[in-house]
Specification:
2 domains, homodimer, alpha/beta
């Protein structure tokens, strides 16, 4: 995320962190090169459009810690990073409330052109009331309405990407001084419940046309949406056992359509198990309590300030009227002398600390339940990535768990080798012919 | 413009043009380096969000010629080009109908951070009905309404850029693990007639905070807007004599506020006057008639198809009922055997063909009426820029008409050396204090 502090709150202050230099292009160039050296498929940029303000009903802890705030626009980094890499993909998040589909479709096509087809879109509907307020919606449209908007939004951009310019519309004929054939460029005439877009699309067809499509929503509605649209999915399971039914459900929703599934993982590497655990514990102790309370308050939809974060866990266990979410948390504690704040910090930063071999075992365990890959979350950047590339990747490679070289072609072809650069014709984005009325003028 | 063909229609097909490679990052990197070698202040990206469709009431000629269509999103090129240059500025156009002020303000701040303060915004309201349709407004809001929106829009983004984060809000205190002081970061609470934005701004203060502000509107309303807001202005005068009263009027509207004024100029360079004129004539003859009719139909608000573009000028002169715009055109013709189409092509491509000395004389003539600089329009890219840099710039430099080195600092400091990187306190963007309610939560 284009921000000082993403997941591991407080650790931007570590001496080996360059997270404070998040506005320096060199920081990102270095990271992209490192990821390509480690054969990562893609960098993934998360994004939010408002500071978290659940904890203490205030955004003060968020601002204090630089926790996913401030945050830059990740899209403008991508051509720069693509220029310094050859194969790495660039996935970024943009919620469907942020921008009208017409200019968004152009931005995405521009990125796909400039990167040679290495861009992916993580489709989100946002969950932050503040984002809805900041974007002029008055507040956040309710969940079902957001997904109805998302469906309308993707239909509009699909038409622009897939159904405006025919494959042979562009001629580049110097002798006739003809750039394109007007009869093969079409208005899309989208009039949906939320969005109207006439077109034609402002971009000629890019290598992938539709970027590789990621999704992350885990509600029933979100999973159905992913089943229809996504080619890759982030799920939030914390163990292979709990992931297995989710994976099965996602694959069922996708109805045979190919979909790559990723889980978030954070690692602390050591040359021995003991060393790794010691490092992890030391890092955890240097993490801030407030930042973690602020982050977990958002994701558990609960203001931990109301429970008294300084209260020892043992005392809370005996308190009547504690919410189910807090009780689940308390039951996860293995130390009664922790405060609630310390417990939240621990729960919010569970990571695998171990040797490269132990981490490779874990990757195998995920794979055994049908998970395709890991979304590596940094503890300290760039240390986490460098350690993974230098120490874990060689072990994964020896076990055949990571690619030895990139597949040729676009990001979609790297995800699905041999598939071609376009979405399959069975995907809903392509289930529509060109409209044959290229000479008409709308409006 | 991020497109195959900007002004000189048809010449993308010349053998020395790389305009077809407009989606190749290398094209733009080469151009940016060339411009920096020539001591240009800034690259300027124009932009439109719909194909021109006045001529023949169709966008077919536009699509045929690749005339300002397709067009990429220029903003995502900027960090890449900034990485390959040290001083050059990057000015891009974004109309206020395109994007909500909140994410736009973030994009601009991100660009200002990533470029070290070398970005400028050309504020436009768009004149294309197609853009209004494509952006979901149903059509184009009327002129006065667009400027009322623009006023509201800039007030919203000014508040985010100038009045959300205090100068000393960011601490980056590793010892306390404190990124920023929440009491010095403010919601902006903008509730205008068109836009609501609460904030706080998603970006910490960038080098310029508010980007350098360009404007181009030449109506009375547009000029008043420029007088209030712009630090640089494109005017469309074609002679120094006609520019003089415009310059005076703009400076009056600016009421003593500093403002840089630029005129569009296209040059064809020769080692003799005769050679330059011959080259210009040859280029003109290879230009397309249709493309120029399509472009001039838009800018003269007149469909030249209705007048019979194949009709000889001499015949049209004697035809009753010819419109005033066409009659003005006809009176500009110096050859009766031209067709209307050829005449429009000629009028739409008037450029100065001459030796570097003759071009330098022209620059002096512009300067003598208070014009600050030239917006160099290419005839063929990159040839026009290379010829200008290699042959005209040395003459301009010898006469003290072009900078010998860049001033240090941000783009604003390069435009106004010694001024500091921020807008002056007298600018309306800064005429407002911080609101002291940092701990409150909105909504």
């Amino acid at each position: 995320m284009f921000t000082p502090s993403h997941h591991a709150q407080g650790l931007w202050a570590e001496p080996d962190s360059n997270q404070l230099a998040y506005n320096d292009p060199a920081t990102w160039i270095e990271l992209a090169r490192l990821c390509e050296r480690g054969m990562f498929d893609t960098i993934f940029f998360a994004d939010v459009l408002a500071p978290y303000d659940t904890y203490q009903q205030s955004r003060d802890a968020t601002v204090f810690e630089g926790m996913q705030f401030p945050t830059g626009d990740p899209s403008v980094l991508i051509p720069l990073l693509a220029h310094h890499t050859e194969h790495l993909g660039f996935t970024f998040t943009q919620n469907i409330l942020q921008e009208h589909p017409y200019p968004f479709a152009r931005k995405m096509s521009t990125l796909d052109h400039l990167t040679g087809g290495r861009v992916a879109w993580n489709i989100v509907t946002t969950f932050l009331p503040g984002a809805g307020r900041n974007l002029g919606y008055g507040g956040l449209p309710e969940h079902g309405d957001r997904y109805a908007r998302a469906e309308d939004y993707v239909q509009a951009v699909y038409k622009l990407w897939e159904h405006s310019w025919e494959d042979d519309a562009v001629l580049r004929d110097r002798a006739r001084r003809q750039f394109a054939d007007p009869a093969k460029v079409h208005e899309v005439d989208h009039e949906g419940p939320y969005y109207t877009v006439y077109g034609p699309h402002l971009s000629e067809p890019s290598p992938q046309r539709t970027p590789l499509l990621f999704q992350a929503g885990m509600s029933g509605t979100g999973r159905a949406f992913a089943g229809r649209h996504a080619e890759a999915l982030f799920i939030s399971s914390t163990t292979p056992e709990s992931a297995a039914p989710v994976v099965a459900d996602v694959r069922r929703a996708a109805a045979g359509r190919r979909i790559r599934i990723f889980v978030p993982q954070a690692y602390v590497v050591g040359s021995t198990e003991a060393e790794a655990r010691r490092r992890d514990t030391e890092l955890l102790e240097r993490q801030t309590v407030e930042g973690n309370l602020a982050r977990m308050s958002v994701f558990l939809h609960h203001d931990f300030a109301t429970d008294g974060p300084d209260t020892p866990v043992g005392e809370l266990r005996n308190r009547p009227g504690v919410s189910r979410q807090v009780r689940d948390l308390l039951n996860a504690a293995d130390r009664d002398d922790w405060t609630l704040g310390e417990l939240v910090r621990w729960v919010g930063n569970r990571r695998l600390a171990g040797t490269p071999e132990r981490i490779a075992d874990s990757v195998e365990a995920w794979q055994s339940v049908g998970v395709d890959g890991v979304n590596l979350q940094y503890v300290v950047s760039p240390t986490t990535f460098a350690e993974f590339v230098d120490h874990v990747v060689p072990v994964l490679r020896a076990r055949g768990l990571v690619q030895r070289e990139y597949a040729p072609g676009t990001l979609r072809e790297k995800f699905f080798p041999g598939s071609g650069s376009r979405l399959p014709v069975s995907h809903p984005a392509r289930a529509r012919g060109f409209r044959r009325w290229g000479n008409n003028l709308k409006g």
